Each structure stands twice: as structure tokens, then as C-alpha cells.
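Team,

Forwarding the record for the chain on the shared tracking sheet. I've put the sequence and predicted structure together so nobody has to dig through attachments.
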Amino acid sequence: VQLQAYGGGVVQAGGFLTLSCAASGIIFSINAMAWYRQAPGKQRELVATITSGSTTNYADSVKGRFTISRDNAKKMVFLQMNSLKPEDTAIYFCCVAIGSSRYNYWGQGTLVTVSS
């Protein structure tokens, strides 16, 4: 199983970006999917999660600005990011839980830079 994340880039504060992550390989079903991020000099933090039933959960810092969604048929997860702030600058990682309650597969990360 491999995850490929893409969609990062440089955007001005107040702008928007959509991250995408595609899973490939022999996958029967994906349980939860999530996005984490890691800013320079900081620990990796959870940004948003979505269950197999599409229940979502967000970090307080992104509530109301970010939206996580998934396409089960395409084995993809998305993160729509609006009203971006410089503090959103980080490497964003997608991850999925397959046959497990834990996120056991991770993508390589995509860099998001928000300029002030």
C-alpha cells in the first residue's frame, strides 16, 4: 500500500489550497483517514480525521477553515484549506488505517507555505 499526497504550494495569507492523497495497492477497505502536519521545529499534530462513515473531526486551530472529505471508490482523501494563515505553514501528511484502528500507512508529505 502506498499513499501519494499532492497539492501543496505557496499561497498568501487568506488564500486557499486543496490537498489530495491517493492510496494505491491491494486494498479491500480503508477505515479512518486523516491529515497531520508538522511545522518547522514542532511536533507532528493532527489536523483532521474522517471515519469510514464520513464522521469528521478537526483540530481547534483549523475548525471552520478546513474541510476533510474522502472518495472511497477512488481511495482518496482530501483537505480543503480556506482562510490560510502563516501558522498553517507545515508539511502535511496523509495517513490511513487499513485493517487496523491505528493509522498504519503514511504518505510522504506535501509542503504548504503561507506567506504573510
